[in-house]
Amino acid sequence: MSDTRFPTALQIVVTVAVNEAAGVRTTSPLLAVSLDTNPSFVRKIVSTLSKSGILVSSDGVNGGIRLARPAPDIKLLDIHGSVLPEQKAWSARGGIPSICSVTRNIGAVSDQLSAQADSAVAGVLKGVTVQDCVEQIRALDRSDLSAATHS
Predict the structure, then answer these.
(1) Minimal CB count within 10 Å: which of 30, 40, 66, 81?
(2) Is 13 in contact with 126 (CB distance < 8 Å)?
(3) Per-residue 3-state assignment (H helix, E strand, C coil) for 41-102
(4) Are 67 and 16 in contact (CB under 8 A)?
């Protein structure tokens, strides 16, 4: 099963950014509906993102969830590091008997490949901001609307 914490956190942060731009208050129940999950799960992720300085959450009638800094200043790598701080692409299998050159060395090969994969992911995520995602969503929306009106 695939870990969905990063895409879930990304959807939360981008939703908050889109709502802020539109002047719409974002709440855990609202996010829970859009994520098809429960508000307590949303609050757990929001809490993690708040501790990392990505979101700010406040209670009360005028409370809600907001970006802690401008969308162009939040890199996707920040979100990834917040919700998956120690996760690697994969880990080598442990406890393999050292009976041949493969079993003696596959762990080192696997670790090198994992480090390269992690570096590639970080390279992509550090070059993309929340604002980039917001703009891409808007462009896709315009494209969908244009296609619908021309059909």
Answers:
(1) 40
(2) no
(3) HHHHHHHHHHHCCCEEEECCCCCEEEECCCHHHCEHHHHHHHHCCCCCCCCCCCCCCCCCHH
(4) yes
| DSSP line for 106-136 | HHHHHHHHHHHHHHHHHHHHTT-BHHHHHHH
Cα separation of 92 and 107, whole Å? 5
Residue for token digits 């970080």? Answer: 122
Domains and CATH numbers, the chain: 5-149 (1.10.10.10)
**Contact at 8 Å (CB) between 106 and 96?**
yes
Backbone angles phi, psi at 16, to 5 degrees: -60, -45
The pair of structure tokens assigned to 75 is 């890199």
Q: Is the dihedral of CA 93, 97, 101, 105 positive or negative?
A: positive
Answer yes or no: are the C-beta atoms of 46 and 23 closer than 8 Å.
no
Whole-number Å distance between alpha carbons of 80 and 126: 10
Q: Is the predicted pLDDT of residue 151 greater than 70, yes or no?
A: no
Q: What is the total residue count of the chain?
A: 151
Q: Which residue has 């969830």 as its token pair?
A: 65
pLDDT in tens, 92-121: 777 888 899 998 888 889 989 989 999 999
